[in-house]
Amino acid sequence: MANVLTALAVSVDGFIAGPDDSTEQPLGKSGSRLFDWFFQGDTPSKFYRQFQMSALSARFFDTFTSRCGAIITGRRTYDLVNGWSGTGPLPGAPLFVLTHSEPVEPPAGDPPYVYVTDGIESAVEQAKAAAKEKDVGVMGSAGVQQCLRSGLLDEIHLHLVPVLLGSGIRLLDHLGPDLIELECIGVVDAPGVTPLSYRVQRDESGRS
To answer: What CATH class has 35-156+163-193?
Structure first.
């Protein structure tokens, strides 16, 4: 069965984007600093040839990317990047957009985007079916938080960047009062980034 996971670059103080994000500045003020490691080496990604990373970074990045057969994103992220102009964040992978209403003029894409208006459980169910033998990736803070609150997230991969953004969009806000236990399943000491991998622990009922 497909796992549901997220892998996001994050500052040491917990932000995945800086303040004042917009369509002109999707990552907010100074947020692009979280992705400098994409361009600090000589090894291209197998999936995004424009990324030139260290060999170690390219290895873990491509390993994670190859696992994903479908992607879930929130409407805010979708709007900030103008819907990736129809290509999706992972070209060729079905994209499921969490939204209250479908856009009036959705971009044409192959495969076409699916706009999910009935909640995160429905989005995960549809994405798992589309991913077939692969896993489902979740982008953006809102989708990750909803998955955690609903007990649907299996793994968290944090690409920890040695910087303090001070403010912006936090990844793990609004989770509620309940304790969520994590098991560390991997640490990589790569140039300019430290990937940390965790498995979300669940109780006997299956809840995190």
So the answer is: alpha beta
